[in-house]
Amino acid sequence: MTTLLxxxxxxxxxxxxxxxxxxxxxxxxxxxxxxxxxxVGESGCGKSVSALSIMRLVAEPAGRIEGxxxxxxxxxxxxxxxxxxRRVRGREIAMVFQEPMTSLNPVLTxxxxxxxxxxxxxxxxxxxxxxxxxxxxxxxxxxxxxxRLAQYPHHFSGGMxxxxxxxxxxxxxxxxxxxDEPTTALDVTIQAQILELMRDLARRLGVAMLIxxxxxxxxxxxxxxxxxxxxxxxxxxxxxxxxxxxxxxPYTLGLLRSVPRLDEPRRARLDxxxxxxxxxxxxxxxxxxxxxxxxxxxxxxxxxxxxxxxTGHRSACWEAMRLVKQLAA
Amino acid sequence: MSEVLLEVENLVKHFPVGGGxxxxxxxxxxxxxxxxxxxxxxxxxxxVGESGCGKTTTGRCILQLERPTSGRILFxxxxxxxxxxxELRAVRRxxxxxxxxxxxxxxxxxxxxxxxxEPLQVHGIVRERTARQGRVEELLVQVxxxxxxxxxxxxxxxxxxxxxxxxxxxxxMEPALIVCDEPVSALDVSIQAxxxxxxxxxxxxxxxxxxFIAHDLSVVRHISDRVAVMYLGKIVEITDRxxxxxxxxxPYTRALLSAxxxxxxxxxxxxxxxVLRGEVPSALNPPPGCVFxxxxxxxxxxxxxxxxxxxxxxxxxxxxxxxx
Lengths: 329, 324
What we know:
The complex is a heterodimer of chains A (329) and B (324).
Chain A: E1 3-16, E2 19-32, E3 36-40, H1 47-54, E4 63-72, E5 75-76, H2 82-88, E6 93-96, H3 100-103, H4 110-121, H5 126-139, H6 145-148, H7 158-170, E7 176-180, H8 188-205, E8 208-213, H9 216-222, E9 225-230, E10 233-239, H10 240-245, H11 250-258, E11 307-310, E12 313-315, H12 320-328
Parallel strand pairs in A: 3-8, 3-9, 6-7, 7-8
Antiparallel strand pairs in A: 1-2, 1-4, 4-5, 9-10, 10-12, 11-12
Helix pairs in contact in A: 4-5, 5-7, 7-8
Chain B: E1 4-18, E2 25-40, E3 44-48, H1 55-62, E4 70-75, E5 78-79, H2 85-94, E6 95-98, H3 112-122, H4 129-142, H5 159-172, E7 177-181, H6 189-206, E8 209-214, H7 217-223, E9 226-231, E10 234-240, H8 241-246, H9 251-259, H10 265-270, E11 311-314, E12 317-319
Parallel strand pairs in B: 3-8, 3-9, 6-7, 7-8
Antiparallel strand pairs in B: 1-2, 1-4, 4-5, 9-10, 10-12, 11-12
Helix pairs in contact in B: 3-4, 3-5, 4-5, 5-6
């Protein structure tokens, strides 16, 4: 496998009334061709800003990509001109958002929203674009696609709209899809439909996927590799099976323990992570998780680096090895 | 078995569509279509289902925020539709609600202290000012906040802390029943467990009864004693927690359970899943017969013709399926 995307030491900040917020604070991760990588974390951890940074869609002037590299097929996206970047968006890297209604244009037909990109990026004629649009809608399981082209987004249900978003994302045969909470706004049974669809299409078409989510179940089912984020940093990185079987960061462990699981006997009491989510304008020195951490030691006032703890498994915790022992005990 | 606190009998709530100044009424949305259940003192009944299934409307009818089209709601044996406004006011104190989004349900211009003191004053629960402050502090401590939080504004708190304020406000009225409408679904994963533990602690300490409305089946299993599954305005299955999760008898319950991904790749790899076809039909024009039949993996001819009654298929386990 070759590496499709390499994010290196990416830093994105936002200027707010409370000061500069380091939303993404020096993260590095990769996506190999055709694989599905998850970016997991809670609200404000920097997972969505990471995706927007890759697309260079961070809202300026408040938001700014301060540094790092985003190497896509060897080219640094941060060094491209805006016209060059426009050829990457949609054509090379496409995005699926959480709320399809707000990312579709309400006054354009479904057909027009699909064909526009095809005509611009793929230089198709209107007739070719229409044929491709019908094919795409069929591919994502929208019945009667030819008739649907003339309809507007409000004619579609939430699940159908998300299918439409996926069709738009796939339109120009991208190599990478960034899916930001693609099913969070949908009902459980529709969620399952959309996720299965995305996985089947990604496999069939060989598209790599970055899934951004807070749902540990979705990650377990669909991701090959996982990056866990907390307060703008990646705190743990490993293959999906490995991270669930041997979490080596107290935050990952805490997340896994705090959710009730349908496949396990009901516990008398849940085991939450203590304290409040981090306030990015007032982070403690050192490890940002330390105020909530049950494994805290004195050294946590220095920030731990993301370091290898096993093959393909890295953790940013001074006590990563102690964590392992306690789990075994 | 403890006494019955709430009895919902054949509750129906239809919303007219159209019927404004310019158009004639063109139909009705059957949001809740004949729902019955009882809630015993001190227990938690989980009400699950997907958006539009009527679970929230059922809660709002119990809270008297909606006037039911028909059916009865008996609270401590009193029919809420048959009493005077003054009597209803007294009952309302004893039936409180916790909403999903604590930010939109707290007045941004009031301090937490004012938010909690207001109902104490309005309902004349604590008439004297300093005593009221004392009660506010007591409530804050009870939900795991500090007395100093009384001086803060909602925007100065995190989502989890705001939900604690929402709970404190419900507790201020010393209710018997709390309708919890998706109380943790807007919260971060690491905070959800804190709030669930808090709700359980309060229930034990204060003898509260909960109607817990949610779509997250794992959370509902954790907190509920009994669970009712709703689909298109009807209860399709209702039984105690263990039976529902271990031996679900309605195909919709089974599909819902199978749609929840388990946070463990080793389990997910070998797990069989039933992914339902299609989408929830419109409550404006529900399908004939069993409302679930167009999506049901095991439907037979009878299902599209005959409405299945909610019947007791074995003691305390009710299912509305011809084939259960």
